[in-house]
Amino acid sequence: MTAGAAYLLDNTWENEHERLRCLESVWDPGTTARLAAIGVGAGWRCLELGAGGGSITRWLCDRVGPTGIVTAVDLEPKFVEADPRDNLEIHRRDIVAEGVPGEGYDLIHTRFLLMHLPERDQLVPELVGRLRPGGTILLEECDFGPVTAAGMAPYSEIWGRALDLGARTGGDWSFGLRMPGLLVAAGAVGVRAVTEGSVFAGGDPMAVVTAMTWQQLTPQLLADGCPAERLTAAIAELADPTRWFPSCNAVAAWGHRPG
Question: Residue 204 maps to which CATH number?
């Protein structure tokens, strides 16, 4: 999250905490399963970039225990600050303008962050370099290919307009597909990657978080020429339990610093 770009989904929106909690309910089970499989445990030193609503930060704090430390970074960390922990360090920080804090981490994790930052290709090797020898990096970012390829009007249409907005502010919301190659190029070893997605019904948590994302983007979408009636119709469809929609894929890629 960086002040240097027009970050479209910032934490200052009045309903952002609710949106993030809904997003966490969808994606946290996969994230925590991967972190557990990596072996995050007592005494680990972890860096969580783009802490958002704070659920993964709190999970890491519980996992590393009193002998570990979790560093959480966000441009607006108010949701993390609302639930402090003794083993938690919070940084209000623009990682592009001010740099990534610290080094020698056992784990570095991001979720749905790098896809918004124009500097993402340069950040990946920097993050690998911030690990201790043998440390692990886990990057989770989106691939909206399944959504746009579905050709479902108005669902795919509205997402397509949102992706265009992101691209104009330097984002790449299908960045997840490129992460494994970037990790290898950065010198990471043992690189692996998986995708996670779903087909969901209207009214499901994924439908709710999608509708809220569009509501947050409504001023920008309308200013960009999106017809108000199309946006209204798309949001209404997401509440219809008889309709089914493809989600974006979350691409998870991880590897280790040699050593």
Answer: 3.40.50.150
